């Protein structure tokens, strides 16, 4: 059984940690909650004890015969602090040991995850940013906070990511043993399917759900990368620690990807852009004709975003990953078509999906073959899209040049 220490510091987002705790316990993890004294001002000890099935303590003087300030950190498989306030980040970065949580952080030799939550000004303050950089340099995973409603009427960056996404992030960290092979790297991922509007209510689109692209963004973040995710018409929660940009059309996707990818270490084009768009946009809804005839829609070809990105790399050693949703026919197999696309697009890796008979789209699992320009080929048997995402990240890490 995986042993998790959940640290809770004193911020209004402490109530969300109760949902995170429930996620851990219901999935079979053994969880010990260590709230700070100020956290108990927001959510009391009975809540943490009822949900974890264990007593909680804040000070090293409680249950002293068990030496909790040493044992908890030594025995943990993961320590996650959510929310992590500016004060907690500062104390952790300075190596203070003035309560049970900070003592545990000093003795932990397992992966440590901080999920910050605070007002925007506090997050952006140079002192906080220096503390975050220090923690990351020492090997901790500090999740980027989300943007949205804060306390009062304030909005901005500093919101605690959703508990479900923090849990998925932590589950990835546990599964990978805290591997941080993408630390210090910037990875840009696209996901979803673009829409090309015919009139104010109708559009040309495709069946891409964005699940695989979001899984890749989550996997890269859990391995230490700074991740920018460009989502096209995706109705999924933002992955924890990932900057998300929302677009709709292929033109918007192209502009966002070119901008976000400048200087990136890896680009993963998992989105499904529409190949064509209407030559003219009808200003009003297209009406049915009385004679039963249908309007003629003239189409024009959209730009090839993947080819443009691979042909105009903005950094030496930049790794470009494309996706191929293919079906075979009487002349060529899925892999035959995929290898042609790999050469034509000039990418380093191509993730090949056989989408015949409705496979892949909108499903929780996937199977793929990852082809490399260097002649490599990795078969991925049917597995969750999260597991497929880590195979893609494995290949990206393999191809990235050594950091200086």
TrEMBL record:
Residues 182-398 form the DNA/pantothenate metabolism flavoprotein C-terminal domain. GO terms for cellular component: phosphopantothenoylcysteine decarboxylase complex. Residues 1-186 are annotated as: Phosphopantothenoylcysteine decarboxylase. Its EC number is 4.1.1.36, 6.3.2.5. It catalyses: (R)-4'-phosphopantothenate + L-cysteine + CTP = N-[(R)-4-phosphopantothenoyl]-L-cysteine + CMP + diphosphate + H(+); N-[(R)-4-phosphopantothenoyl]-L-cysteine + H(+) = (R)-4'-phosphopantetheine + CO2. Pathway: Cofactor biosynthesis; coenzyme A biosynthesis; CoA from (R)-pantothenate: step 3/5; Cofactor biosynthesis; coenzyme A biosynthesis; CoA from (R)-pantothenate: step 2/5. Binds 1 FMN per subunit. One of its GO terms (biological process) is pantothenate catabolic process. Residues 3-172 form the Flavoprotein domain. It comes from the Bacteria. Residues 187-404 are annotated as: Phosphopantothenate--cysteine ligase. Gene3D superfamilies: CoaB-like, Flavin prenyltransferase-like. Keywords: Decarboxylase, Flavoprotein, FMN, Ligase, Lyase, Magnesium, Metal-binding, Multifunctional enzyme. Its cofactor is FMN; Mg(2+). HAMAP family: CoaBC. NCBIfam families: coaBC_dfp. Catalyzes two sequential steps in the biosynthesis of coenzyme A. In the first step cysteine is conjugated to 4'-phosphopantothenate to form 4-phosphopantothenoylcysteine. In the second step the latter compound is decarboxylated to form 4'-phosphopantotheine. Catalyzes two steps in the biosynthesis of coenzyme A. In the first step cysteine is conjugated to 4'-phosphopantothenate to form 4-phosphopantothenoylcysteine, in the latter compound is decarboxylated to form 4'-phosphopantotheine. This is Coenzyme A biosynthesis bifunctional protein CoaBC.
């Amino acid at each position: 059984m995986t042993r998790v220490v959940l640290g809770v510091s004193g911020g209004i987002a402490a109530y969300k940690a109760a949902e995170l705790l429930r996620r851990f316990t219901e999935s079979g993890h053994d969880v010990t909650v260590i709230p700070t004294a100020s956290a108990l001002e927001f959510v009391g000890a009975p809540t943490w004890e009822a949900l974890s099935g264990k007593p909680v303590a804040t000070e090293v003087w409680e249950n002293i015969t068990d030496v909790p300030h040493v044992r908890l950190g030594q025995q943990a498989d993961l320590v996650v602090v959510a929310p992590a306030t500016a004060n907690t980040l500062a104390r952790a970065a300075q190596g203070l040991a003035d309560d049970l949580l900070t003592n545990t952080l000093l003795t932990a030799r397992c992966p440590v995850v901080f999920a910050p939550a605070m007002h925007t000004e506090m997050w952006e303050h140079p002192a906080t940013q220096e503390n975050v950089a220090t923690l990351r340099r020492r090997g901790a995973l500090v999740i980027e906070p989300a943007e949205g409603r804060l306390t009062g009427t304030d909005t901005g960056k500093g919101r605690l990511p959703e508990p479900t996404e923090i849990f998925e992030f932590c589950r990835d960290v546990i599964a990978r043993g805290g591997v941080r092979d993408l630390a210090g790297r910037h990875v840009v991922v696209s996901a979803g399917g673009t829409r090309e509007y015919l009139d104010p209510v109708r559009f040309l689109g495709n069946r891409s759900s964005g699940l695989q692209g979001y899984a890749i963004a989550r996997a890269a973040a859990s391995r230490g990368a700074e991740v920018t995710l460009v989502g096209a018409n995706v109705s999924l929660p933002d992955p924890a620690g990932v900057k998300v940009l929302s677009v709709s059309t292929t033109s918007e996707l192209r502009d966002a990807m070119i901008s976000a990818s400048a200087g990136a270490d890896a680009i993963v084009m998992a989105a499904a852009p529409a190949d064509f768009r209407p030559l003219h946009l009808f200003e009003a809804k297209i009406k049915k004709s009385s004679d039963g005839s249908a309007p003629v829609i003239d189409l024009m070809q959209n730009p090839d975003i993947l080819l443009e990105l691979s042909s105009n790399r903005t950094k030496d050693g930049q790794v470009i990953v494309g996706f191929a949703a293919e079906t075979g026919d009487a002349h060529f197999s899925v892999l035959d078509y995929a290898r042609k696309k790999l050469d034509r697009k000039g990418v380093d890796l191509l993730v090949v999906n056989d989408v015949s008979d409705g496979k892949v789209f909108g499903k929780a699992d996937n199977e793929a073959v990852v082809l490399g320009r260097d002649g490599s080929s990795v078969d991925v048997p049917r597995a969750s899209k999260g597991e497929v995402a880590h195979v893609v990240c494995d290949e990206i890490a393999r191809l990235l040049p050594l950091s200086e």
